[in-house]
Hints:
- Residues 1-43 and 502-512 have low confidence and may be disordered.
- The protein folds into two domains: 50-343, Alkaline Phosphatase, subunit A; 351-505, no CATH class.
- It contains 13 helices and 15 strands.
- A hairpin with a 2-residue loop joins β13 (368-373) and β14.
- The chain is 25% helix and 15% strand.
- The chain has helices at residues 14-25, 32-36, 76-84, 98-107, 131-137, 171-176, 223-252, 280-283, 312-319, 334-338, 408-415, 423-430, 458-474, and strands at 51-57, 86-92, 122-123, 141-146, 152-153, 166-167, 184-190, 259-265, 284-285, 287-290, 302-308, 348-353, 368-373, 376-381, 436-440.
- By secondary structure, the chain is α/β, with parallel strands linked by helices.
- Residues 58-59, 98, 266-267 line the site of calcium ion.
Amino acid sequence: MSLTPSPFVGRRSDRAFCRIALLAVLGLCLSLDTLGAEAARPADARQGRPNILLLLADNWAAPHSSFAGDRTVRTPNFDRLAREGMYFDNAFCPVPSCSPTRASMLAGRYAHQLGEAVNLWSSFPPEHPLLTDLLRRAGYLTAYSGKGWAPGNYVVGGWAENPVGHRYADFASFLERTSREQPFFFWVGNLDTAIGQWDYRPEAAEGLAVATVHVPAHLPDTPEVRAALLAYYNGVRRFDRAVGEAMAALERHGLADNTIVVCCGDNGWQIPRGLANCYDDGLKVPMVVWGKAANAINGKRRERAFVSLGEFAPTVLELAGLPVPVSMTCNSFAGLIRGTHDSAVRDAVFVERERHANVRAGDLGYPIRGIRTRDHLLLLNLRPDRLPAGDPVKHQSVGPYGDIDNGPIKTLLMQRQNEPGMRRFFELSFAHRPAVELYDLHKDPEQLVNVAGRPEYAAVLASLRQRVVDWMRATQDPRMDPADNSIDGFRYYGDVNTWDKDNFDGAHLFTH
Ligand SMILES: [Ca+2]
């Protein structure tokens, strides 16, 4: 598993590579200068290029660091990066779902521009050049540990291994086997904050004060809920230790001065109305960019402009001094880091989701398109006849309500849904939603009161809706056609009955 790969070994199969080369010749994807360049030889590969280290937490929500003001958990290692680098107050994932966000991060395109990769547990079509392809062609080693592009089946997309690169046991073992002469891109796919790793044992909560936990307003404030959230916080603490270990390895190898570190969550946290939902609990993530090599970090330490993880690939390319291909429709935010862009123009992010788990009859997803600005969140639920959390019965191997991951909070909401005072909490996470949701974030930061029908919001609703429609049209969104259900027809690869375990990195990735 941890053999040192040749830097010239292609990460795609020959078939996939040929398709990309053909598209490049046709001028559809990227400039010939980019694709046609020979991979640099290791001896002269660095050419002043920085290393890139991505520390990616699975389902870690924006408020949960001590730097951001969380009162329950201390995150000294993340806080150090935030103090020394640039912390983003308004960083969002493009899709509140693992593999679509990770595909968007790699391709620099909106998820609905990535074919089957728009869905969770999908394949990853090879049509568009990925960040890792382009870095490799510029002489980089690309590798990862833990969770790469996942969950999904990359083999059917023509990939010989995970689209992120070659897999290592951890970052430290990668560094021990890697030449200093060659720049690297390493992706640490940490799982500590994923619900499968939440540690409910009382001893795991040592040092975490349950009284300080902020229970989101859409959940009942009960001892069971607080205990479950504390189990998540223990994962946050473990992730922060992993950040410290990765930074220590970087410094031990003398590479800190020549490395740009991006530390973030890939989605919000795995609570009802969190992951798989286009509310802040599912969308808003912590993010820091750190490093002298970013050239970077212009002295402004806290950035309030809106950025999306879909913009990760063009941003990294620009920071590395490499051209950004035209296929990357998401914009680089490297200018924010270097202080050359006016942050005021970045006033919003577009968000979306399609099929998360396969939890509806007919393999249907739950399509949403929306926009998040400083003042408002507008969501267009394009198929409001479907249930946002999935059908109330088990479908294939998942469910009921399988878009909400199993755990004590889900169990409590389902079991006590008919008790006085509990019905509202159940409906907020499990019930049908209207076609249009609009939230006034100044009055309602937790996004509970839908003001879409109020006359005083008609103008802002019309304006935001137009921005979403313009975005969908400009990005050739298949959902522009109300009759187009092609996305629902994409194959789902997560059913345990048909799951080809050999095509995945491990059973631990059988998670949302
Ligand atoms: Ca995730």
